[in-house]
Amino acid sequence: MRPPLLQLGALLSSMAVISNWMSQTLPALVGRNTSRLWPPDASTQVSPKEGWQVYSSAQDPDGRCICTVVAPEQNLCSRDAKSRQLRQLLEKVQNMSQSIEVLNLRTQRDFQYVLKMETQMKGLKAKFRQIEDDRKTLMTKHFQELKEKMDELLPLIPVLEQYKTDARLITQFKEEIRNLSAVLTGIQEELGAYDYEELHLRVLSLETRLRDCMKKLTCGKLMKITGPITVKTSGTRFGAWMTDPLASEKNNRVWYMDSYTNNKIVREYKSMADFVSGAESRTYNLPFKWAGTNHVVYNGSLYFNKYQSNIVIKYSFDLGRVLAQRSLENAGFQNVYPYTWGGFSDIDLMADEIGLWAVYATNQNAGNIVISQLNPDTLEVAKSWNTGYPKRSAGESFMICGTLYVTNSHLTGAKVYYSYSTKTSSYEYTDIPFHNQYFHISMLDYNARDRALYAWNNGHQVLFNVTLFHIIKTEDDT
Ligand SMILES: *[C@@H]1O[C@H](CO)[C@@H](O)[C@H](O)[C@H]1NC(C)=O
Ligand SMILES: *[C@@H]1O[C@H](CO)[C@@H](O)[C@H](O)[C@H]1NC(C)=O
Ligand SMILES: *[C@@H]1O[C@H](CO)[C@@H](O)[C@H](O)[C@H]1NC(C)=O
Ligand SMILES: *[C@@H]1O[C@H](CO)[C@@H](O)[C@H](O)[C@H]1NC(C)=O
Ligand SMILES: *[C@@H]1O[C@H](CO)[C@@H](O)[C@H](O)[C@H]1NC(C)=O
């Protein structure tokens, strides 16, 4: 990169020298203000710093993840500017070449005339000298007048000489322009090819890094829970409400399932605003009653625990029918292993960045929490993890990035007390408080799209923000 640019710098200064001459000489000759083409406006300084930089902050004050990509503004853009500048220069040189051609045609004609004039005048001069020598014999008044006129004309000779010099300069300049033009074209081609390759590589590298960054950013460790914001106050003390984490950005349907038993009516709202105002768009009458409040909507389907069973049902809203149902093997149900508040909350279905999960307890695991990853189509258990945390001592639990977070109570003073990573099959005691504003939580679920916790807080539908901690290595430029 550097050699061509340095070369360009040198060229620019030599062009500037020429341009000085141009601006002084050409306007007078061609009546065209060529100086306005000069000087080239961009600096020829080259910044040595190169490379894309991907910065990411752990979180902003609102708990949102931020990924900042800093393009190598200075150098890439300046290189871009240099290419552009080169292109402009080239164009200018070509334009000037054209001007020179025009000028040349004109001066060629004038020059011929001047040459003729000069010869004539020189001839005249010689003739007069001759006549002067013979002045004794030819002493006429007329002669003196003629001589005086001739003397007036004499200063014209150096002017014409100068004109000739100028013409020579123009010729030389033409050649220089032609040379320069060729060099510039060469540089442009070289630079163009280099830039394309470089740019392509950089874009590829950027893409990889961005994907990497996003992957790391979408997952992190829970650090803080902020809020809540009370979205609505409605329903009984126990219930569930949710949005679909896999829905598209503009699809923000809200589903509302009041009470933990004896109900099979799901209310749907087109948007959060409709939910707040109570403008229902649809209701679904499920073929079975649900148990508890730990349902989840995932990819357009509702997953819920069928009343008085450990059967998980997948119900498609669009098709209005059950797509799959399967018993969660050994899972306790009917208040055998509920959360602290009871309410048939034995089986908790949830979704995170990784997929669909069921959280429950079994006799085999001594009533401690079991985490199972479910196949969202068949409801088969893909893999299970046995934790050591007693389900009946858990207030609620939710999954973020494959880590289960368990609260120690559903009452005031509740905090996230325990976490279990399915990635490392290890647990940790935590101390992450959150504001249990209405003193009783019967549902708490993470929504990966909104990066929020949806909660049913004693007949209030509330949202918490979460702050996830990410460690991102900022890679050096390749
Ligand atoms: C030529 O252009 C320069 C720069 O734009 C300007 O300063 C100058 O007045 C112009 N001269 C004429 C004769 O137009
Ligand atoms: C060169 O000339 C063309 C046409 O005369 C004009 O459009 C263009 O702007 C000129 N380029 C430069 C760099 O002056
Ligand atoms: C133009 O280039 C030729 C060949 O490289 C060189 O001989 C000549 O001196 C150059 N002319 C000028 C005016 O630089
Ligand atoms: C969501 O459902 C669509 C079809 O409706 C399917 O193509 C897609 O793979 C599903 N996504 C996940 C993550 O299951
Ligand atoms: C979460 O953060 C977003 C973005 O700053 C903000 O608009 C929203 O009100 C916050 N929600 C809660 C529950 O704090």
TrEMBL record:
Superkingdom assignment: Eukaryota
Pfam family of the protein (one): OLF
Compartments in which it is found: Secreted; Synapse
Signal peptide: 1-19
Keywords associated with the record: Coiled coil, Disulfide bond, Glycoprotein, Secreted, Signal, Synapse
Disulfide bonds: 219-401
Chain ranges of the Olfactomedin-like domain: 218-470
Record organism: Myotis lucifugus
Record PANTHER family: NOELIN-3, OLFACTOMEDIN-RELATED
Name assigned to this protein: Olfactomedin 3
